[in-house]
Every structure is written in structure tokens, then in C-alpha cells.
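Alginate lyase family protein
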Amino acid sequence: MTNITGILSGIGLRRAIGQALAALLIAALALPAMGMSIKERNQLDLSKYTVNDPNASYFDVPARMKLLQQTENPMLLTQVEELSTGPSCQQLLAIPPLDTKIRIPGFYPSPKAWRKISGPLFQFEKAVAKLAGAYVTSGDVYYGRCMIRFLDKWARHDALLNFYYESSQPQAWFSTESMIFSAAEAYSVVRPAVKGMDAEKQRVDQWLKDLAYKHKAIPGQPNNSCCNNHFYRRALYASMVGVLTDDDELFRFGVSAIYSALHDLTKEGALPLEMKRGRRASHYQNYALLYLIPNLQIVSRQGYDVFNLEVDGHTIKDAVNFAIDILEDPDALGDLAPHEQYKGFLKDDQYLAWMEIYLSHFDEPRLEPFLRTMRPIENRGAGGYVTLYFMDPAAQQQAFTAAQKRRARASRDQE
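Predicted C-alpha cells:
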């Protein structure tokens, strides 16, 4: 066997070792940094962030209701007509609360089983979203009172508090986080308009608070659910429940996700923990924004200019610009992830909900092509009927027909 060490001279050996170490260092520097740790997050001084208005929903409900009463936009008027006759309260009250242990299989290993078992969870989220939409479009406080009765029934059964969690089986934990913020956001829309029902409101408030604290007590896995899109989902309910219950600790937990995300951004604007998803990196950069942007919206409604917040030289615009870049051209990923990217999520309007909220703050023409073919946009958890609640009536007059949507998707797939 050849003795390579013996062949090399002393100087050559040192040069070879030096070159190898340099190559390793360059490779290490090229890798995206991991996320802000929980310890670093807990050291953030967020004392200036306090709840200023517990009755402020995630959008200005009275102002939007007034706009919808005056608008001549055909697409918005169609939504108003469809939603103003809301669901039957008696039927909703007949839905049994989930008060037994919730255990759900993982989505990727078992998508069919996940969908089947998740049915009651989706039913809950759709119910509260529809009630909020019915109140906004009709102005009938009946739907607000129904919302409180519905949530109070779940509160009296301690629903959702008993979920199975192991680090290797976190799906029930993931799924219930969605239910908390869907309930909190919808409840925030109607609560200020409902007079009386003080005992019911107090029970719902306390239930949401108990859910939030129990749920967020699980820290998640390092460089994974502790700090990635699942953390942003937990932050979303924490901000909204914090507002509703005038709880600064919960509110600041929500704010900490904004600081964490901006801190983590690469020079390109990528979220490193989402880039780890390989062929789904684009999907998860977008998915992270699906929760970060509504969180920013909730915090901004408390009087904080977080849409322009800068952390370590980055603002949320950097993450958004990078998301658009890689959706338009996967080559923009560079060395961060494979350029063959899954784009199926762009055919599902719920994943575009954040864009509607973002456009209510910034003029970003590159987002319009994604939204135009999919409006009206709805996400039962992250914002509800976001086109109805946020779209500038001048942005688009008519929704695309099913045939137009199919042609637009086919054209986009060929690009």
C-alpha cells in the first residue's frame, strides 16, 4: 500500500492540510446559520411591548364593515352576499367539543389518515371563521353571540387541553396550535360588539389563556420546531390571546418570533430553518410568512411599527422579497436548496393569505399575479377571509372563473 504521507514533503503536507482546512471553513461559512436559540430569545429585552388595546382585533373591524357597506366592488359584494347568511347556531352548538386526548398521525407519513382524523379540527376552525365572516358582512350581532356561546361550550369542557405529545409524534401539538389562533382571531372580531355575556367571555378568555400557556410550555426541538415555522404559529396565537386577555407575557412571546425571524435571515433574505426542507424550501419560506405576517399585523394593531422593524440589518421586506424571487425563479435559491422545487401549494389559495395582508401595508406589484387568479383568498386559521378583510377594492373587480384559473395555472406551470 502506498504511504501517501511519506510521498509528501513536510512543506507539501502542511500546505495540503492547510488547503483542506480552508476548504472546510469555506464550506462551513457557506452553510446557512441556524436559528436564534431559545436561550438567546429569552434574553431579548421586549419590555417596551405591552398590550395597549385588548379590544383591537387583527384588522379595524368597524372601519372595514363601513367600507363593505359602501363598496361597489363586485367581488367583495359577492362575498358579502355569500357570507351574510351565516351558519345555524344550533347546528354549531351540537358539535361535540374535543375534550378527550387528541392524537393525530404525522401528515407526510400518513396524509390520508391525517386528513380523516383532523376532520373535527377543521370543522371547528371553519365554524369560527364563518361566524366572524357572517358578523362582518351582515352586522348582525347574533353571530357574535353565537361565537361566544360556541366557544364557551368548548371552554366549559376544557376542550383541546388534552393532546398527545412526544418529540417523535408532535402532530397533535401542531394541529391544536392552529385551532387556538383560529379561535382567538375569530373571537377578536366579534367580542367588542357583544354586550353582556360577561361570564361567558371570562370563561372563553381564561380557556384561551390556559391553552396558550400549556401549548407554548413545550419548547420544541432545537434547530427545528423550537424556532421554525411552528414557532411562528405558536407566536401567532400568543400575540392574539395576549391581546384579548391583556397578557404582556404572551404578547411578548409573540413579538419574540418577529425578532427571531429577522435575526435569522441570511443575506439573501432566506429563513435558514426553512431552507433545510430541500425541495420544499420555497414552500416553507412561504409557509413561515403565512404566520409571520399576520403576527406582525396583530402587533402593529397595538401601535408598534413592526412592519418596518429592523433587526441585524434586516426587515420583513427582505424575507418577502426573497420569497417572491424564488417563487418566480428557483435559481434564486443559489446554493441554499435544490432548484427543482415543489410548487403545488401555489394552486391552493390558503397559502397566499399573507400576501393580502402584506399588500395592505406595502405596494408590491410582484405579489398581484399570484393573488389575481386565486382571489377571494381564505385561510380558516391565518386570517380568515383575508380578501374580504384586507384587499383594496381598487385592486381587482372580478374573481377568475374556474376555467380561467385552470388556464392560468397551466400557463404558470409551463414557465
